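Re: that chain you flagged

S.,

Sorry for the slow reply, it's been a week of failed gels. I finally had a moment to sit down with the sequence you sent. For the record, here it is as I used it:
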Amino acid sequence: MKNLAVFDTGPGIVGLYQEHRDFLNYYIDDKFEYYGLYKRDAVNERIEYIKKFFKKDKKVYVMDFDAINYFKDFKNAEFGEKSLKNKLAHRKILCLSSKLTLEEKTLDNFTKSYVKYFNAPLLINACNDTIADEIIKKICDEYFQDFDFNGYDLIFLASSGLHLKKDFFKKYFKGIEIFSNTDALLEDYKYKKENYIRDYFYVTNSKRGFYSRSEKYLREKGVLKDKEILNVSKLKKKKVLNKWD
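Prediction finished late last night. Pasting the structure tokens below so you have them in one place:
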């Protein structure tokens, strides 16, 4: 049994793998990527089903920001709470998020600072697909053409997918600090490395869809060599919850 599991719904999960290759179990619910498209009750029901795969792990790092309101009272769940509270204090924040995060004002769990939520589904999808920066810029130009950034001193990326394009956002929003939920998790990351064979990624839907995007990103960052691949397997159960189909 491994000590630590990592949970997400898309390729943004490799933002942790990029920094810490500690022989972890990575669980990706890409069958319903991403949870921000759905209502809370449906998300909770889905997580209830999927968590059985990693229930034996002593701790789970939650990288899908829309899953936090399910896990926030779990003693074995980590999502960068300490770092979030420290970083977001006394700031004026623009939060780029999903519709669900906007509706629930999830960031308000961690700060009393002013937060403006901005629903950015196309941007999240584009970042998850590791689309070229030129296309990301066109989406941002369309989104923010009439937006007044005056007074904002932090832009929070409430999606692990958005974190994959953090370098782009730092250039695009020049002069405003960029911080993500992945950054918070990485700052709070603690793990005693044990003697296991390798990191392993488990998906609920498409192995090809997950690793084609993830490996592309990791090769661009120099984490994987040209022909090196991730260890990806599909979670197998006789009955799959598919009521959202």
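What I noticed first: Residues 85 and 171 are 25 Å apart (CA to CA).

Talk soon,
D.
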